[in-house]
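Try this one yourself first.
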């Protein structure tokens, strides 16, 4: 049986991407296409310009030569044969009937280079003649306006760079070389730019939920890739902290559930094993107490789960009316409410009722004689204060009380069946409504302060924040 080699950790992150589907491939192809399009236009412009320049230069020299020998013919001083120049070697004097009367040595044995005859009113005109495949660039100069005046033709063969298409070939080769060079440079530059991204991708492929301690390397500089790496590291740090918090929560939850279940099982086993020594009513009463605690824990856990996946139906809520209604429910100590009317927030009524009930229930458990609830707008926030006259909370424990399953000694004594999740759930609800919940200083007792955004913004008649 052939053994399958183990899959290397992070191999999925190093999967090869087809060149044309990669970013550097797409950039290289796009750059090559754009460069080729631009170079084609530039090449056409250069080709036209070079052709025009060469022909213009030849025609300029031919015009000077034709004008010179035309004047010589008019004055009767044209030599035989007509001497050629370096730039103009084909010179002919052609009569009305197309006969060559005089010519330069290179054109002496040739028939008339052109049978064109300029009109009397425009005696100097350029011509392009192609008698035998190779074109001639000529300047025709009629000697005089007379009807029988001969014509001087001066010019030369079209240069090979124009006649054979060598200029176009050279331009095309140069365009291809430039395009290839630009595409290669783009491929190299993009690859060098994206090299840190490949390293980041490989490192992220090595990160698992069981180990979030790894961090991606941060390249030097403050460009977009460095910012991406820093953001990824901050996200990993938050995930690491959240996973660690969930681990602690799971450990604490298992302990909180195991303890009452173990006690319940022990009491029930004692009732079965020693029926004569155990009071059945006490056993049932104790079982109900433990069941109530388990039910409270499960209810709070379900509330946490619903809070994570469902934000509830949001509506405009008169927070003062809600607090007044919840404070009216009977309790161990009275609750006095001082609420400014018209303080409205936007949120889930069911969850805000749960939050207010948790704060009032906690205050009633710890109060000696009463609870004072104050609601007022401060700036753009609705501020709800719940103050009891109990022993209060030490500054060192003011954040701990919002942790899950944390119960102070006084809380355990006053409410043995509590779940330790009420205040943690209340803070989660406050955060879900873009608010805050904290414990602040007070002359006596514990002061819980809830701040939520006002529905209508800053209140005109509200209390200004100091």
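Now uncover the answer:
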């Amino acid at each position: 049986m052939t053994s399958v080699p183990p899959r290397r950790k992070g191999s999925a992150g190093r999967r090869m991407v087809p060149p044309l589907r990669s970013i550097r491939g797409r950039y290289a192809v796009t750059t090559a296409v754009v460069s080729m399009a631009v170079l084609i236009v530039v090449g056409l412009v250069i080709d036209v310009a070079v052709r025009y320049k060469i022909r213009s230069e030849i025609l300029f020299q031919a015009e000077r030569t034709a004008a010179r020998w035309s004047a010589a013919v008019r004055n009767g001083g044209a030599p035989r044969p007509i001497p050629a120049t370096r730039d103009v070697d084909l010179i002919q004097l052609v009569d009305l009937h197309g006969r060559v009367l005089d010519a330069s040595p290179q054109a002496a044995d040739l028939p008339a280079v052109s049978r064109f005859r300029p009109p009397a009113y425009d005696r100097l005109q350029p011509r392009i003649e192609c008698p035998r495949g190779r074109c001639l660039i000529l300047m025709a100069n009629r000697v005089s306006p007379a009807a029988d005046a001969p014509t001087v033709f001066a010019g030369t063969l079209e240069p090979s760079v124009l006649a054979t298409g060598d200029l176009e070939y050279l331009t095309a080769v140069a365009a291809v070389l430039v395009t290839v060079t630009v595409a290669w440079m783009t491929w190299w530059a993009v690859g060098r730019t994206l090299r840190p991204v490949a390293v980041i991708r490989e490192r992220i492929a090595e990160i698992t939920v069981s180990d979030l301690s790894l961090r991606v390397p941060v390249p030097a500089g403050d460009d977009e890739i460095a910012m991406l790496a820093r953001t990824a590291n901050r996200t990993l740090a938050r995930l690491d902290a959240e996973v660690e918090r969930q681990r602690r929560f799971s450990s604490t939850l298992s302990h909180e559930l195991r303890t009452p279940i173990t006690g319940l099982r022990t009491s029930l086993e004692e009732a079965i094993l020693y029926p004569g020594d155990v009071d059945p009513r006490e056993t049932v009463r104790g079982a109900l107490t433990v069941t109530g605690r388990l039910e409270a824990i499960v209810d709070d856990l379900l509330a946490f789960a619903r809070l994570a996946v469902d934000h509830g139906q949001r509506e405009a809520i008169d927070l003062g009316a809600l607090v007044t209604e919840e404070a009216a429910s009977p309790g161990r100590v009275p609750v006095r409410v001082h609420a400014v009317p018209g303080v409205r927030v936007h949120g889930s009524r069911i969850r805000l009722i749960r939050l207010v009930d948790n704060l009032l229930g906690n205050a009633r458990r710890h109060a000696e004689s009463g609870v004072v609830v104050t609601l007022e707008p401060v700036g753009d926030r609705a501020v709800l204060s719940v103050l009891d006259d109990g022993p209060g909370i030490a500054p060192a424990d003011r954040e701990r009380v919002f942790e899950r399953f944390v119960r102070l000694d006084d809380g355990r004594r006053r409410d043995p069946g509590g779940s330790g999740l009420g205040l943690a759930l209340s803070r989660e609800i406050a955060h879900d409504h873009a608010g805050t919940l904290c414990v602040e200083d007070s002359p006596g007792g514990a002061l819980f302060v809830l701040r939520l955004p006002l529905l209508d913004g800053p209140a005109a008649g509200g209390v200004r924040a100091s």
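Discussion: The two ends are 79 Å apart (CA to CA). The first strand starts at residue 90 and ends at 94.
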